[in-house]
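Final report, closing paragraph on structural work. Over the funding period we assembled a curated collection of sequence-structure pairs, and we close with a single example.
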Amino acid sequence: MKINISLFLLLIFITSCEYNLEKSFSVNLKKEYKIGEMLQIELVNKKDIALDSVSYFLDNIRIGETYTFDNDVLGKKVLNVHLYANEKKATFKKLITLYAKEAPKLYTYKIINEYPHDTKAYTQGLEFYQDTLYESTGLRGFSSLRKVDFRTGKPYKKIALADEHFGEGITLLNDKIYQLTWQEDLGIIYNKNTFKTLGSFPYDKSKEGWGLCNDGKNFYKSDGSENIWILDTLQQKELRKIQVMTNKSSIKKVNELEWANGKIYANTYQYNKEVALIINPTNGKVEGVIDFSGLKQKVKQIPKLDVLNGIAYHPKRKTFFVTGKNWSKIFEVEIFEKK
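Its predicted structure, as stored:
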């Protein structure tokens, strides 16, 4: 049997090109960027293979070979480079991280008033609604939902959660209370006045419940990581997320959340210092860090005294109410930028 040598060699060449497509290219780029910087992708063709086309996708959005970060959401991103040759496709996946351009501004506080707070309250969520303070407390077997007279520290109304539930953040919208539990994959919806359970919702990609707030249109939910998830208010479905980032790093263990003046104010759990963050809800940028050092020393120093947690904005008074887990006081404060 005669063999067409030219055809045989051509088939070997084509097969070789197809098989070695991924090995014949490499993609070079930096791993870290800041807003304002340019993403430049270097595609190295090791064997001078003719490509049919190349496409670049940043978090599933098509971009060009160069791309300048501007109004992008901060955090970890995935760059996919797709190569096409000889009716075959090769994909290179690269992970990059986008940081804020500027460092956060530094803020401090001034105490306006001090009010009593229940030292048995392991505070997880704190929010004002129509001049009334609502509080969620944690620990299994001790978790509760409360409506509190902030001037006396006494609850108008209080219910206990099931022993297996660890209460976490709360928020109120349209006369309903939304309360998270920690690891139970459960959010609970209550009537604001009666505390009667109206429904519940599961979590999705956010495996835990930590803090919760709302802007009137969406819920914002923290899960103990650097992620804050945006949920719709009708079905509490996770729509997307932001990642809490400074100009140098991500901030993990984002805890209790509060919406005020178009920003998210957030506690961080077991952070080295008594601080809260001011977060841009659009891109995750930490725009400010509030230094609350000194507050913990002003409360009763009991054995079970725990970290700063609980921040609620009073829109009429234009002040913040701040407390901690098992603290004997809640502080009404003004927050202002350090000079």
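The longest strand covers residues 88-99. Helices lie at 5-19. We thank the funder for supporting this effort.
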